[in-house]
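Researcher: Next sequence.
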Amino acid sequence: MADAAAAAAAAADGQLLCLGSELQEKGRALLFELREYNRPVTAFALRVEGRVVAYLNRCAHVPVQMDWQPGEFLDAEQRFIICSIHGATYEPADGRCVGGPCGRGRLKPVAVQERDGSVYWYPDSQLKPSAAVPSHADQSPPGSPA
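Model: Next structure:
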């Protein structure tokens, strides 16, 4: 009984990101704003191998945003997350560096869960919600409905 109450309390702390159906397998990532140590940062969530993963949008090699177009992180074969600046390459499932100048680094994960058809992210001691919410309209291709 106590475990069920703890699980319900933890679920209540989740921050809604989107509907699960909005994240297509190895498709465009959802960008969202949060705060790390009270500084604004961008994170991204994407679906790989049927599950949702999320990381800060910051390369382990040089702390720059990695997407080559808004929400586009995967290489041409859609196998790896790749930094558009120096080509550091990461395994999408766990964020570990697999090639390029990132050495033994890894992307900083953001705790996410897909539950009841929706995707939530979970704040922790370092990552807190931002006043901004995900903007799906900002990621739509020009001329498409928002």
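Model: The beta strands are 15-19, 30-36, 39-48, 51-56, 81-82, 89-90, 97-99, 112-115, 118-121, 127-129. The first helix runs from residue 2 to 12.
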